[in-house]
Amino acid sequence: ITDEKPDGVLAGLRVLITAGPTREALDPVRFLTNRSSGKMGFALAAACQAAGAQVELIAGPVNLPTPIGVRRYNVESAQQMLDKANERVGKAQILIATAAVADYRPRAVQDDKIKKSSDSIALELEKTPDILGELSRRETHLFTVGFAAETRELERYARAKMQRKNLDMICANEVGPGQGFDVDENALLVFWPGGQQQLGPRHKRALAGELVDLIATRYATGDE
Ligand code: CTP
Ligand code: CA
């Protein structure tokens, strides 16, 4: 009989990850969404699992296989993602929010399919809940990692976001044509309150492994 100890930089830790886009319904057959592929979140789930963590993955609609050993929950809307995150966050030590959550949703969801009539119509939108922001403010024990896709002023916007959402770390990437969304390569500029590090550019899978190492280091180091 061997006393099997899990090894890896996240051994014994529980990690909750959000990934993919959300879908915000307009009517029974239509929704608002975005171009997120979910690849970074799924790659991170696999990398955390490989690093010895118990991983739960809350995924919006994406066309990706569940990494082996990872427990996956499928959701559609931002509200469903928040509800599931609230349900699963209790035992987690680390939350990694890679999801590209829709910022707005239609104020009213029509029960019947919207018919074509006028030449133009206006959609009234309301803000969705901030999943990461809510959890990180409420669950003060959690080590929280956010993502920020920006088209300009990467460091300024990312650091502001980290402060506003009370995060331990934020991973910023520049997005634009062929960059960040729906591609296999990515580069991240990772910020935490006392420092920063550039990761990549490289394949999202390799990048995920490096990011997991950095998260483990920062988690172990804590605030200085
Ligand atoms: N996020 C979230 N819930 C939301 C919006 C964002 O959990 N409703 C998370 C994302 O998963 C990401 C981080 O917050 O980890 C930052 O997302 P981002 O869209 O960059 O920030 P926003 O606060 O939505 O600000 P903006 O889109 O205006 O830049
Ligand atoms: Ca947003």
TrEMBL record:
Q: Which domain of life is it from?
A: Bacteria
Which pathway is it part of? Answer: Cofactor biosynthesis; coenzyme A biosynthesis; CoA from (R)-pantothenate: step 3/5; Cofactor biosynthesis; coenzyme A biosynthesis; CoA from (R)-pantothenate: step 2/5
Co-factor remark: Binds 1 FMN per subunit.
Give the span(s) annotated as Phosphopantothenate--cysteine ligase. Answer: 15-224
Q: Give the catalysed reaction(s), semicolon-separated.
A: N-[(R)-4-phosphopantothenoyl]-L-cysteine + H(+) = (R)-4'-phosphopantetheine + CO2; (R)-4'-phosphopantothenate + L-cysteine + CTP = N-[(R)-4-phosphopantothenoyl]-L-cysteine + CMP + diphosphate + H(+)
Cofactor names from the entry are: Mg(2+); FMN
What molecular function terms (GO) are annotated for this protein? FMN binding; metal ion binding; phosphopantothenate--cysteine ligase activity; phosphopantothenoylcysteine decarboxylase activity
Keyword list, A-Z: Decarboxylase, Flavoprotein, FMN, Ligase, Lyase, Magnesium, Metal-binding, Multifunctional enzyme
E.C. numbers:
4.1.1.36, 6.3.2.5
DNA/pantothenate metabolism flavoprotein C-terminal domain mapped to chain residues:
10-217
Cite a GO CC annotation: phosphopantothenoylcysteine decarboxylase complex
**Residues that coordinate or bind CTP:** D103, K113, P129, D130, I131, L132, F147, K161, K165
Query: Ligase among the record's keywords?
Result: yes
Biological processes per GO annotation:
coenzyme A biosynthetic process; pantothenate catabolic process
Q: Which family does it belong to?
A: In the C-terminal section; belongs to the PPC synthetase family. In the N-terminal section; belongs to the HFCD (homo-oligomeric flavin containing Cys decarboxylase) superfamily.
**Function according to Swiss-Prot or TrEMBL:** Catalyzes two sequential steps in the biosynthesis of coenzyme A. In the first step cysteine is conjugated to 4'-phosphopantothenate to form 4-phosphopantothenoylcysteine. In the second step the latter compound is decarboxylated to form 4'-phosphopantotheine. Catalyzes two steps in the biosynthesis of coenzyme A. In the first step cysteine is conjugated to 4'-phosphopantothenate to form 4-phosphopantothenoylcysteine, in the latter compound is decarboxylated to form 4'-phosphopantotheine.
Task: Please give the name of this protein.
Answer: Coenzyme A biosynthesis bifunctional protein CoaBC
Biological source species: Oceanococcus atlanticus
Span within the parent record: 171 to 394 of 401
